[in-house]
Structure formats: C-alpha cells, structure tokens
Amino acid sequence: MPLPARNVAIDAQDLYYTLKTIRTALAYNPNITHCIISFAYYFWGYDLSLSTSIYQYKRITEVNYPVFKDKHNFPGNPDDDTQIFLKSVTPLKKHLFSFEVLANQYVENAKKRFEDSHYFSYPRMDSEILKHDDITNRERAQKRAASHNKFFKYASTVQENQKLFADFLEEMNNRGVEIILYVPPVTEYYRNSINPDLISDFYACMEPLQEKYRFKLIDLFNSTYFKNDEFYDYDHLNDLGAIKLGKILVQALSL
C-alpha cells in the first residue's frame, strides 16, 4: 500500500462486527483517510451472532465478545464459556500451578505472537484447486456456494444490515473517509454455482446507497484476471492472487 496501512480483518466476520472494528480503529487513530472493505454478495444476509456453526459460535464467544463486549444478536451468554473455565480452576490448582502468573505470561506471549500477525498463516502459496480433478472441484465449489446462496432468505438480517451500512456511510462521508468496497474474485467453479438471485439482490440493496452516498464499488466476481493457481480455495486468494488484488485496490485509492 502507498499509505501506512493496517489489516483489521477477522476470519468469518460479518458486516456488524466489520463496521464496529472500523469505528474502533478510527477512535484509536482519527487520522485514517481510506478504508477498504471486502463485501461479498452474501454479506447483506449474514449475521455471525445468529449462526449455528460451532466455528462461528466461537468467533462470538472467543473473539468478538471479549474484544468489544458486544454480543449483537447472540441468543446466549458469551460469558458462560469463560465462567466454566474459571470455575474449573480450583484454589488448590491456583496455588500449585501459580495460575495468575501463568495466565499473565500466556497473555503477554500471545500479544507478542500476534502483534503483527496475518489473516492466514503465511506463506500461503498452495491452491486446493490444483490438488483435485474437475469433478471434485465442481462438487466442492458447489457445496461452498450453497452455504452462501441461503443468506438472502434472512430478510430481517438484510434489512438490519442495510440500515447499519447506510448509517456507516453517512458517518464516513461526514468524516471525509474514503470507502472502497470490493466484491472479491472467485474461481470459475464457485462462480458457476452461485444463485443469480444472490447477485441481483445484492445490487438491489447496494444501488440506492450508491445514489445517496459517496463510495467506490469494485466488482471482481466475474474477473478472469485471476488464475486457478492464485486461489487458495474456491473463493479465497492465496499470496499470489493477493498481490494482484492489492495492485487493483491501490489503483482505486484517491491519492
């Protein structure tokens, strides 16, 4: 990036926590002038806090809630997991194993370990697509796309996210922060499995915002610029693809 930049993306994030992360970064550094957001077609209907997946459940209880103290629409009590752990540490165990000292050491080591960590483990040069035959790739991509095709049926989430994003855009326009959205590139396998209604619904939500607020939208979904060996899986780039994507995004910056 031609400007000092920080990646504040978190795995399996949704729009609500994405915007919360950005606002937190701006509170920490009000001099931020540009913000780039990955905005997949299914994003409007995605609410991490209502997911039934154990992986995404842990994103609330182990990442977002501890950081923001905000459970959004999460129906349970995120503190429960922490309390279960703490109650399992008896006074005897604390005495024998110097629990507080070990806990503090663990936290400090974690801070150092993740001080400048990346979204994925690096280097990330492999490509799942190259490991399988055509039939297997189609089946796997179809399964992945099917997990995203369902999101627009959650009408209340779509409406909530539209309101959240409209408020965010108005705030960023008033602050003079340039917002760049991009629909990430995908493999042909994934692209062929996406429900066309997902795309039309995406733009039905986005176009009214484009008329009212200032932001850039770069749609790379149908791009043929990225090759199979530049994808880690069917809808995520590896390092090779990320370098190419970075160049596109730099060109979009108004500097």
UniProtKB/TrEMBL annotation:
Which InterPro entries does this entry report, sorted A to Z?
A: SGNH_hydro_sf (IPR036514)
Q: What's the superkingdom here?
A: Bacteria
SUPFAM superfamilies, A to Z: SGNH hydrolase (SSF52266)
> This protein is called what?
Uncharacterized protein
